[in-house]
Amino acid sequence: VRADNTLRLVREMATYDRVESEHFVVRFKPGVDGIVAREMLEPLEANHARVSGKGDGGIDFAMNGKTLIELMPDHRWFAVRIAGMPRIHTIAAATGPVVAMEAPRSGPNHLVGPYDWVRVVRHEYTHTVTLARTKNRLPHWYTEAAAVNLEDAPRDYSACKLLRNAVENDALFDFDEINLAFVRPKKASDRGQAYAQGQWMYAYIIERWGSKATLDLLDKYGAGVKEPEAVKSVLGIDREQFLKDFTVWGTGELAKWGMGGPSVTPPLKEILREEGGGKAPGKITVALADACLAKHPEHTDVLELAITARLEASKNQPTQEMLPLLVRYAKARPVDPLPHKLLATWFLSGGGSSQPDALALAAEHLEYLDAREQYTAAFAMELANRYGVAGDLDKAWAKALRAVRIAPYDPATRELAAVVAIKRKDYDAAKWQLEALVLLEPDREVHKKRLESLAKLKGEAN
Length: 462
Known about the structure:
The chain is mainly alpha-helical. It has helices at residues 2-13, 33-52, 75-83, 117-133, 140-149, 157-168, 175-183, 190-209, 211-222, 227-235, 239-256, 268-275, 286-295, 300-313, 323-332, 338-349, 358-372, 378-390, 393-406, 411-423, 427-440, 445-461, and strands at residues 17-20, 24-28, 67-72, 92-95, 98-102. Helix 1 (2-13) packs across helix 3 and helix 9 runs antiparallel to helix 10 (227-235).
């Protein structure tokens, strides 16, 4: 079956077109994918500068030749490209100097729909660069750690919870276990923990020994030095001592996140049993949560409990009464997006929407959410609209462009970007978006009329 699929793939890709830039070739199926492929070159070059450069966390390596990016039209073709079978657990993958990715669009043959492909491909390109610098010799966990680190995004809350669970249950992987967790996970959370813990270990190396140590380790691996000797040589301690020191450091990091240390002591289960007279309560009510909070006002798990109890009573809608709790919880546990989602809702469509500064207050929380979002352009679009209303057209354009890159096949993101570009009097950018709309929706004559109107507007401006 794999052989037959691969033969079909070869015949399919023989029909593909390509576009090129200084460091990349993008191969794509003719048609609407060509819109996205041509737009990819500029952010790909920015990814190259970041990943292969000398900046903070950069791999500092000059690539030889161009990297091939293969934009596959749907999940089936992408999966066959990587594994020979029409389904795989991911949406992009690097195989040395080739990065294949599923087109970021909605539809029955797509795994996740739109996604932040710039971030995803930066991750995969980091694999390409680390593999090149080490001549394909480095531990699996280390290339993944460097790749997650160079996503340049805040750590997902799901990763924070995995790390907390691992520390609390003495379940952090050792150097051998973490490599196996990527390829032979024993439980559903193992692969996620391996990604999260690997990047955490990488961040610890940078904080304690500096960025140069991460590159020195790459060079040791590239020279064929085995990991025990490489770690000892570069860091001055063996792997066992590293894990001991790392666990102590990680415990301190959890405390900063409001997920460890005094902020969650005693455990929530003990607090609830105490309030229940030695028994675990069957139902968490607002009254029970408030009783716990009165005795443990700084306990972040109790703060969260007080909020979730109120949400159940209010059918998941934020209320005026919740606001002080939401603000306290957001400050006490800065890694949890929950209070930011609720506060954004309050200032956008809830009781806070009538406040004079509601726009600025909502934007603060939307920015927090957008920085962590990978699969929807909703936050970026909302911010683009809000900044446009406020007259900050540069910020509006930046968010509109981010929305287009997450959901490049969605006409709504294109229309928003065109509107913002026209307001900025950036008629070339508006033309770019309208031309894309003509190809995405060829049956809608309005796009062609808009292009004609734009040409007149541009002529009058000149």
